[in-house]
Amino acid sequence: MPQIFHPAMNTVARLTVFGAAFGVVGTIVLFYEYSRSPFQTEVNVVREQPVQFSHEHHSGQLGIDCRYCHTTVENGPFANIPPTHTCMSCHSQIWADSPMLKPVRDSLASGEPLRWERVHDLPDFAYFEHGIHIQKGVGCASCHGRVDEMPLTWKAEPLTMEWCLDCHRHPETHLRPRSEIFNMEYSLPEREQNMVGKRLVREYGVQSGYYLTNCTVCHR
Amino acid sequence: MRAWFGLIPLAFLAGCRNDMYDQPRYEPLEPGSHLIGPSSARPLLPGTVARSENRVLGAFDTGLSNGKLTEELPLKIDRAVLERGAERYGIFCTPCHGATGDGRGMIVQRGFSPPPSLHTKELREAPAGHFFDVITNGHGAMYSYAARVPTRDRWAITAYIRALQLSQNAHVKDLDPEDQARLAEIKP
Question: Which of A25, A77, B97, B187 has a Cα at 20 to 30 A from A208?
Fold first, then answer.
């Protein structure tokens, strides 16, 4: 009986075995890693903005409260970007001739809003209410990172569904007292956090993980 | 044939579009079209009244009573109002007026025109409506804060300014005898 397979087929066979084991797994791993990498989530990626605004300077060094500009974060569904009028309440006098701020002055004069690029943009199929997170004790830094240390603004967290669910499953691991929401330096050792967190979950009436992970909470 | 199966995952890539991520509807403050103007958040027409605002404007809404700046605070002042006022004062006023109201806040230290101290005789005697009016309409170099601070918060801030003024101009003899005794102990 003649030989059916040419000896070179040995290599093909090995490749097939290798491919079945590592090729498929590798592809899955690749997709898994890619969808969580900064290429996809834009974590730590600085967005080009019309004006090079530094949170590090305004919030960190000058100590201006977040809410001076982001006035609706506590109660609104949408955390607002301030209108040009807010910028100009100081820059009408400070750095009033700076070429860097020319777009701001032009915007006030013409009434044409500045086109800030959104850094935190959730997909449109995810319902998100900013105010309720503040009211239930989620601090700024928990989702936005140390914005007061960012010379330009970037995303500190991936805002993937997996990331949202981490906290929705175990809110006690992240909640803080309402008085500390805007304190960028607040953090507790893990054991203490869990104790405080569990107390706050009861005190603030935070729903159980079962309810918070219901599909319709975010996908309405 | 088999080798081609490896390419199947690639076929899924062709399905990767972001239509659902970015649906054809406006998000708040998104750039608008020629139909609605530069932003999806359209500017308010003059005279727009929010649902939460009073239809018939009184001293609470305008700071005026009988055509003059109101002397009295037109809301009940309790601890919660003062605490709210202290918080809002901290957010919106301290950058220039400073935590004590001396007019030496951080932005003034960086070159903004210094506002008068809130503890001058003139401002201590000013009617409550004056502070409300300045927050609402701006004054000198100070812009209007009406868009940032809702009406009730403006009164809360005004109430807190009164508390600040008291704190900087109180006499020892105004204290409880108990507190006076404690103060005497501390004094060297």
Answer: A77
Domain residue limits, chain B: 59-174
Place of tokens 């903004």: B112
Tokens standing for B9?
A: 């995952």
B63-74 tens-digit pLDDT? 988 889 999 999
Question: Position A119: which residue type?
Answer: V
The helix (H) or strand (E) run that includes residue B69 is strand B68-69
Hey, what amino acid is at A38?
P
Q: How many CB atoms lie within 10 A of CB B128?
A: 20
Tell me what pLDDT residue A154 has: 94
Residue whose token pair is 């590090």: A56
Find the largest Cα–Cα distance for chain B: 98
Looking at chain B from residue 59 to 118, which residues have their Cβ under 8 Å from any Cβ of chain A?
A: 90-92, 95, 106-107, 110-113
Pairwise CB contact (< 8 Å): A93 & B141: yes
List, as ranges, residues 81-100 from A with C-beta within 8 Å of B.
81, 83, 85-86, 88-90, 92-94
As a whole number of angstroms, the distance between CA A16 and CA B175 comes to 90
Q: Given CB atoms, is B181 within the 8 Å cutoff of chain A?
A: no
- DSSP characters over A137-191: T--HHHHH--GGG-SS--BSS---HHHHHHHHH-GGGT---GGGTT-TT----HH
CA separation (Å) from A82 to A78, A130, A153? 12, 16, 15
Distance from CA of B125 to the nearest CA of A (A): 27
pLDDT at residue A106 in the model = 95
pLDDT in tens, A146-159: 999 999 999 999 99
* Cα end-to-end distance, chain A, whole Å: 67
Residue B20 has its nearest CB partner, among A28, A111, A123, at A123
pLDDT for res B32: 82
Residues of chain A short of pLDDT 70, as ranges, are: 1
**Which residue numbers in chain B have pLDDT < 70?**
1-17, 188
What is the architecture, at CATH level 2, of domain B59-174?
A: Orthogonal Bundle (1.10)
